[in-house]
Amino acid sequence: QVQLVESGGGLVQAGGSLRLSCVVTGDFFSHYRMAWYRQAPGKQRELVASTGRSSPYYAESVEGRFTISRDNAKKMVYLQMNSLKPEDTAVYFCNADGLIWGQGTQVTVSL
């Protein structure tokens, strides 16, 4: 059974950085397309970044500031977030193949 557990969220001032981590249990990690989504209060969940066999995808709002990476040997996926803005405040979710979700980790960016 595949499970995802996120960590690394927290409170940071605008302009700061955070790195989110997601550990994946189960087999065939290298086959999964991994993604990070986020959901702000009162808004729909949105795709932030994803990585698979093709080039990484980034939402326009985070392009150039966020970087998604993965370590297949460790079954980990990361989201490096730089130059954070208050509008990046949300619960961030790790996702595998569009089907399996983690529990989420809160990111709050203050002015």
Structural write-up:
With 111 residues, the chain is mainly β. 0% of the residues lie in helices and 52% in strands. The radius of gyration is 13 Å and the shape is globular. The mean pLDDT is 95.
Distance between the termini: 41 Å
H-E order: EEEEEEEEEEE
Q: Flag low-confidence runs.
A: none
Main pleated sheet: 7 strands, mixed
Residue share in β-strands: over 45%
Which bin fits the share of residues in helices?
under 10%
Mean pLDDT: 95
Shape designation: globular
Q: Could you give the count of β-strands?
A: 11
Rounded to an integer in angstroms, the radius of gyration calculated over CA atoms is 13 Å
Structural class: mainly beta
- In DSSP terms (H or I, runs of 4 or more residues), the helix count works out at 0
In a few lines, what is going on in this structure?
With 111 residues, the protein is mainly beta.
Write the layout of secondary structure elements.
Layout: E1 3-7, E2 10-13, E3 18-25, E4 34-39, E5 46-51, E6 57-58, E7 66-71, E8 76-81, E9 90-96, E10 100-101, E11 105-110
Parallel strand pairs: 2-11
Antiparallel strand pairs: 1-3, 3-8, 4-5, 4-9, 5-6, 7-8, 9-10, 9-11
